[in-house]
Design goal:
This protein is an alpha/beta fold. Helix content is about 40%, strand content about 15%. Bound molecules: zinc ion (ZN).
């Protein structure tokens, strides 16, 4: 039985495609949006459209940014000889929030997952290897998650980088297994960073 008009159903359906939004939340959001003042809805939709149109990958570290080089890569205050490898931009943001890490990043855009059919060529490993060959890098800190996929990726990276003679380290465990870095508090992140071990 159809309870709502087509337009409402379509809005609910679109919202329910967003991560973490089940059908109940989608209904709640849909009715909230419908009851919002028109100008507010216009601002919301144009903000989404322009974010999607203007955001791209930094050409050095592949984080999401609206410039060719992200603010971290273009900063002279950062230590460009230390690269922290993270799975995504949210993980980068988690480390940035601590305000203690002075190096730069490399954002893989995922992790190796044989179960999901994601292999080394599906994440930005080649781009990292290219950076290592072109830039003067002293240390690569692998800060992928402690999930099975994150550990697999860390092992793969270790084997890939070690022969180059560049120091490769892995952040200490203590980061909860399977925990997304973005949900971990700053103290734990800093402890994981300080306690990193050579691979
Ligand atoms: Zn960058």
């Amino acid at each position: 039985m159809e309870y709502y008009s087509n337009h409402i159903n379509r809005l609910i359906e679109q919202l329910s495609h967003l991560p973490g939004i089940g059908s109940k939340s989608a209904q709640r959001l849909a009715f909230h949006i419908i009851n919002m003042p028109k100008e507010q809805v216009d601002t919301l939709t144009s903000t989404i459209t322009s974010a999607r149109a203007n955001i791209r990958f930094c050409k050095s570290c592949y984080t999401l940014t609206d410039q060719e080089l992200c603010p971290i890569c273009s900063s002279e205050k950062r230590d460009h000889s230390t690269i922290m490898v993270v799975e995504n931009t949210r993980d980068l943001a988690a480390y940035e929030k601590t305000g203690k890490y002075q190096g730069v990043y490399h954002v893989l855009g995922g992790a190796i997952s044989p179960m999901m059919g994601i292999g080394p060529d599906d994440i930005r490993l080649k781009e990292l290897v290219m950076r290592l060959s072109k830039e003067d890098i002293k240390e690569v800190i692998i800060a992928t998650n402690s999930s099975l996929e994150g550990e697999t990726t860390a092992m793969y990276l270790g084997k890939l980088i070690k022969p180059t003679g560049i120091r490769v380290t892995r952040i200490a465990s203590g980061v909860p297994v399977g925990g997304d870095l973005e949900y971990i508090d700053e103290v734990t992140l800093l402890r994981a960073l300080d306690g990193r071990v050579d691979l």
